[in-house]
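Bumping with the actual sequence this time:
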Amino acid sequence: MKKVTLFAVGLSLLLLNGSVVNGQSRLSKSAYKSERKISEISALAKKETKKRLAVRRKFPKYSGKWKGTLYQPNGTLRSKFNFTVRLYQKGQKISGFSRIALIDATQYYGVMRLRGTIKGNRISFAETKITQENPEPDSRWCIKSGKLKLAYIKGKLTLKGNWQGADCTPGTIVLRKVSGK
């Protein structure tokens, strides 16, 4: 009498042939090797799933350096700027610094201190003061606040959202995480 054993791993199926002698099943050598390979694959799949769940539990980690662009489409002088943020996360609170600079003249910049809170995959932030600056002649830097949403875009961790400032035309920010330190 032949016994057929069915193993499922992911979407693939494998049929193994064996025999039953005196009420006990016996697998052929090739079937035994295949069964062992399947159990190794299954163990590896379980390990990878545990890793993904562990990452999800830790997610999100906002601490680190984020680099990107600040857009101000209806701005009076420019419509886009280099924008970098250094964030430090402690629980559900963040602090750090933002740096804005002209794209074509990086000697004109502003560095602002910021604070904020985290709720789920969203950050609410507010710059509190300008700590260093060299504005373009006849211009000034805005103190900004906004809400950014964390997402994976093209496989990269990204913060994206809207900002506004007193006496400034509002816009959007797009940042990619470049360093976890």
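The tokens above came from a reply further down the thread. DSSP finds one helix and eleven strands in the chain.
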